[in-house]
Amino acid sequence: MLPRLSLAGWLSSGILLTACLAWSNVSLTPVAADDAATTPETNEADAPIEVPEGNDAETLQAFLQSLGRMRADSPTPAGFRAHFRKLLIALDEVIQRDIDEDTAQLAIRMMSQCYDIIEQFGDRTATEQKQAFVEGLKTSERPLLAQLGCLLDVESQISSVDPGDKAAVKSVMDQVIKVMEERPLTNAHGSLAYGAMSVIEQTGDGELAESAAKIFGDALRTSDDPAFISLAATLEGSARRINLKGKPIEVAGTTVTGEPFNVESWKGKVVLVDFWATWCGPCVAAMPELVELYEAHHEAGLEIIGISLDDSRAQLEEFLHQKQLPWPTLFHEGAGEGAQDHPLATYYGVSSIPTAFLVDREGKVVATDLYGEALSEAVTELINAKPGAN
Predict the structure, then answer these.
(1) To 10 degrees, what angle do helices 143-160 and 125-138 make?
(2) How far apart (Å, rounded) are the C-alpha atoms in residues 70 and 24?
(3) What is the pLDDT of residue 267?
(4) What residues does each domain of the chain span?
(5) What pLDDT shows up at residue 75?
(6) How many CB atoms lie within 10 A of CB 185?
(7) Which label site among 150, 170, 334, 375 has the fewest CB atoms less than 10 Å from its CB?
(8) How many whole angstroms separate alpha carbon 240 and alpha carbon 212?
(9) How many CB atoms neighbour CB 6 within 10 A?
(10) What is the DSSP letter of 299?
(11) How far is residue 279 from each of residues 66, 127, 247, measured CA to CA in Å?
(12) Which residues fall within 8 angstroms of residue 330, CB to CB, at 6 or more apart?
């Protein structure tokens, strides 16, 4: 199955640290604990990173960004463990200073990720060390660090909870609700709300999703920050999408060629609603399969409507000119970077692409999470189904 590209910016700080792995095409594949014990560490950590003097936020944040772009001297599990241990020393030095909230939040998040990466490269002691780091923050005499420690603790609970254990998910949700009462809200609060909703979605519990979306949305809207208001709408859209199966879909807008469109005009057809973008590699890679699917079933009643999440009309038009896709494509003028403010993407809480909604001949949604062969089989089944059989 092709990978999907996340649209969410709330958890994107992980890119800062994992970017350095891309230089050597190394993935975060778990390494056996025995490998950590038998593979000698490099001496990379012997050369400490020089941290800029002072507490200037702009200077320190630029420094933190540069840490995320540093390459490991040795692209081996031992080399990466040593590299991220060295980053931990520099990050800890930053945190010990009297720094502003944004800098502290970034440095603490990066430290958390360092521990995670070190653990995934074979050092199982990193898990306990991370927990000790979090507990130290929570008991800090500095209120800012104590607050960030509590937020990080809840984030860890989100990442480790079993979606199959609804009681545990509900408990984590309650923890997020509690911290969302804090003011002022920060990006960390947004990350927690987004992460909690992602876990709730995995449970498939539509009622719980609606409840969480309302509570999180109400809390986020107490801020006048447009980013929080946008996130609130996305979370509410996620709940709408989770409860979409068996219900009519609402898709209307203007095609890239300027023509009005409403999916209701295709009543009686099997409809595939494809959220995609030209800048999304997995989306582009999936296009040949969609074209093949369309050509195989169009005469029997299959229609496809593409919803472009591009923010560049010119780029989209050039792509469509080259590929000559045989179905219409909706485009929203003025969407933000990455088109996360596209009204249909927001309305249905689409946070990763490609995302496809499959609609039966009665206009009701059959699935929102099918890809590749599973999607092809579902389309074929709907096309061949007798009227009233669904």
Answers:
(1) 140
(2) 12
(3) 92
(4) 5-242, 252-384
(5) 86
(6) 18
(7) 334
(8) 12
(9) 14
(10) G
(11) 25, 36, 31
(12) 251, 253, 254, 255, 256, 261, 305, 306, 307, 308, 344
- The end-to-end CA distance of the chain, in Å, is 27
Tell me whether strands 329-330 and 302-308 are parallel, antiparallel or unpaired. Answer: parallel
Does residue 7 contact residue 345 with C-beta atoms inside 8 Å? yes
Contacts of 87 (CB under 8 A, 6+ apart): 17, 49, 67, 70, 110, 114
DSSP state of 265: G
Cα gap 211→200, rounded to integer Å: 10
Residue 275: its pLDDT value, please? 95
The dihedrals phi and psi of 141, each to the nearest 5 degrees, come to: -75, -10
Segment-wise mean pLDDT, segments of 10 residues, the chain, 390 residues: 55 45 42 46 66 96 91 89 95 95 91 92 94 95 92 91 95 95 88 93 94 96 91 94 95 95 96 94 94 97 96 93 96 61 87 93 93 93 76
Tokens at residue 174, please? Answer: 């309650």
CA distance 361 to 388: 9
In the prediction, which pLDDT does 27 show?
43
Tell me the whole-structure pTM to 2 decimals. Answer: 0.75
Asked whether the beta carbons of 209 and 242 are under 8 A apart, the reply is yes
Q: In Å, what is the CA distance from 57 to each residue of 53, 65, 89, 107?
A: 11, 12, 19, 11
Residue 270 carries which side chain, given as an amino acid letter?
V
Per-residue pLDDT, 341: 56
Total Cβ atoms within 10 A of residue 120: 17
DSSP alpha helices (H): ranges in the chain?
Answer: 14-22, 33-38, 57-68, 77-95, 101-120, 125-138, 143-160, 166-179, 187-203, 206-220, 226-242, 281-297, 313-323, 343-347, 372-384
Q: What is the pLDDT of residue 254?
A: 95
- Third-level CATH fold of 252-384: Glutaredoxin (3.40.30)
**Six-digit token string for 41:** 């560490």
